């Protein structure tokens, strides 16, 4: 932390031995957890006195507030509706939870967040009740904080880096982030329009998390941005594949309105073809591709083409748009072990079906987050582990799946089979006509700045790194935007100097 030392140790400027300590106690007063204490000669006869940061700074020890438990609506209630299942904290409880932040010298939470969010700063603003400043800070690095706060797996991102997590439970970062965005937006807070527009423009293809992130960053820097999407709604898979009980779609509608207010234009219901891309390259300084990875991974499973066998992404899309009839009395069998499998299973429960998930490995290898698995189980989903599917059975229509297990080859009957075995990128083949190279698995080739093999086309998100978290796509979209801006700013500087 830059604390000066005697320089008598092995390494100049670092404390490597007792002889380096000058007894200044700066390390003690900098320690937020009161883990360090100093004993000085004036208190030699008071061994019970612990001179830690709280004692020296005369502050309340920062350890009295426990991590609050998130309350989920009872399964008997929530499995009959499509509302979000987690109950929000009260305002007062939220401020108390935010106040648990120790403001560590090196913020592990920020380092673990793919967006590098200013987490300790917005936690401090929330603890003070300054929602306006918290909203400014939370939007400084994230285009969709209310979405990230809701669907990020915080236990393996920001909250995994929280110092208190190692002591007595991490700060509720996601819950606070979501609440900041919701409270501020409901109270009328809005993002700022760019101070100055410049003459540059960009076209973003795909209104998923990567595209929205890129568009927001470019727009903020003063570029004119238009976002194209073949769907009539923004969000990409957030809109079509994430169930409503995990993400209220009105949040995406609200975010579209906010982005429009600050100048981002949307052209929805618009499919881009080769001719249009050529036109966009003529008109704009940069084109960003955020096409996602929406094609289901092909699996070698006999009987997978029988009626009654569906791919998870298509099944969720139909269900999310309300086009699926009640499944009461039916048995739905989901094959897979990731979050999509849980999403399908929990959606089928809400449609009235009896639902089972069969996964080829043991429970501890499930890719789905433990919370999702617990919620699914509470809602009545039955699990079969170590079940590797051999074939979908049936003639005319599917009637079940035969599995290989350590104990034999059982058959599980079902009326409907959902294959939740992942997605892959599948960009249009005509992109190669623009010199865009792809990898053997279909991903668009791009470097870490999002540069493709075409000088004016950038790409990021699932279409370059494969299916991943929405927050990773947002980070990739922003990185590409930074690179586009660096190129434009460099060009401007050269022009001014010429
Ligand atoms: S974006 Fe995700 S990882 Fe980052 S602070 Fe928010 S919830 Fe945590």
From TrEMBL:
Q: Per the record, a Pfam family?
A: Pyr_redox_2
In this chain the 4Fe-4S ferredoxin-type domain maps to 11-41, 92-123
Q: What is its EC number?
A: 1.4.1.13
Instruction: Give the PROSITE patterns listed for this entry.
Output: 4FE4S_FER_1, 4FE4S_FER_2
| Entry keyword annotation includes Membrane | no
The UniProt keywords, alphabetically, are: Iron, Iron-sulfur, Metal-binding, Oxidoreductase
Tell me a Gene Ontology molecular-function term this record carries: glutamate synthase (NADPH) activity
| PANTHER family per UniProt | GLUTAMATE SYNTHASE [NADPH] SMALL CHAIN (PTHR42783), GLUTAMATE SYNTHASE [NADPH] SMALL CHAIN-RELATED (PTHR42783:SF3)
| Name of this chain's protein | Glutamate synthase [NADPH] small chain
